[in-house]
Amino acid sequence: MFSTRVMEVEVAGGQINAIEANHAAQAITRAKGGNGQGHSRPNPGEPGYDENSKPQQPSSNKNYSYMVKGTQNRPAEYNDGNWQDWLVTYNQQGMLYNESLIGNNDKDDKDLYLGKKGAEALYEVHQTILNEGSTCPKELRSEADMLISEKGEIAVNFLGGSTCWNSSLGYYVYPDGQKPTSLNDVNVVLVFPNTQDGHKTASYNGETTKGIFTGDCVKLKYYPNIASGSTKGATYEFPAGYRIGFVLATNAWSDRVSGKNNNLRYRSATSSGLSVNDQGKAFDAPRTAVYKYKDKDTNKEYVMVSFEDHTDDENFSDVVITLTTRATIDDIPEIDEKVETSELKGIYAFEDLWPAAGDFDMNDVMTKATYSKLMDTKNKIYEESYTFKTYGNYATLTNGLAVRLDGVSATDKLEFYVKAAGAEEFTALETTYDATDRVVVLTNDVTSNKGAEYKVKVIHAESSPVEKQTIDAEPFIFRAEDGGDAVAWWEVHLTGYAPTSKMNRNYFGKGEDRSQPAKNIFYVRSGNYPFAFFLAGANETDLSKMLDPKNESVAIDKLYSGYTEWVTSNGAQSAAWYKAE
Asked: So what's the pLDDT on residue 11?
């Protein structure tokens, strides 16, 4: 899978600013992009329909899932394939024929069918809880095979995806208390042979390998004699006392997205101990997020299942399905009414010899900012917080770190926390909020607690949550004049940001500074070196050279060959100059 983060850059007035274009909201738009897009499923009697379109061995003109039982000459990575494809029929692109799907005209099954709009709405819920652009919180990762406590019928609805792989999805059933010990012991039935929905892979020609549509709904069958390879006794009614699980085989469809032809052993199963890594070994950690969501407007409950098909981003949103049932399904984790999600903002770097030229190693104070919000399934935000992680900087001067908050209202409550390097929990931070300057002092000396993390939390009134992010945070460094004067401060902000009322403005215009306070122009200088910059989306790995003590006092353009070109081109060239070379 590839990241959804797009890095854009701009340089204005000496400030270096790499801007992250966050496409989380666009992910929902992609899910709403429509099912047509030049492809449709042929029905019996139509051109392209083939009653025998389920290939059992390779063919020069047919595509298939490598997981189907009996497939010959498949890559070794898929030799664990023992899946049955009794349930569905599909064309050479992996799209299910309408005869395998529940649709608008299936009046007997309309309670199992969400339809495209219903699936889109649930995908929005999922995006609220597990945003594809963020790492899935560990507390939401789970392994849960669903217990059928009362007999009935079960259907699977495809909601959406965020992946460059063409995977296959199957399900399996076993008596409660007799969980299989490995995937080799599981009798899997193929549901969706090709889970690529084409929305994320336009630049990879993913639409040509598309095999599934938002809203696709399949009614599952219980096969009591599957272990003996027989369909005898197959029924849509699942018996009570059994569990149902799901497994995703990464890139198991033979026709793949351009440039993504990797044969992969990854299997993501809802059963604990059944997922498999790329070495074919059982995976110890969850590869799925399984939870129950109740729509308060309709009072309907949905079992939501989302898969991580690879391990590169861990967003657990690569393939997302939900179950609609007439059975009673238990033992499903219920999500809290409110869920916290986090988003990396980036890294701020400061030169502490301002207004003098300095050595421009830009590592005197560096802090990574993460934004979090506590929200419900209706996208109402109840809490917003920023966490600032500091690093073992090598400055000889004493620098404090503060943050200026915008958007705090009179009804908001503020809380402050600190976590020392190596500690597991945050503890209360003894500091206060200066409402005049909207400033919170995180520490008077960054070096006194190297590697610490500082959290500023804004709690909105329970009766009036906000509709979107309202709190912005701007970190800056400061020193109290004469070692303790609480009135006059020396401060360094990003280019263009005004100082606080405590600032000693006599520094402006001295040394290399070219600020013009009368015109509200602050912290600018001529040349290619800023006094501070912000790299959106950057992390400590990206800036490892700056954090290496061997590079102390080495100017940034000496460490990164693309830096000067980036600045002089106004961000048009070498946009990823800080990435590992």
From this structure: 29
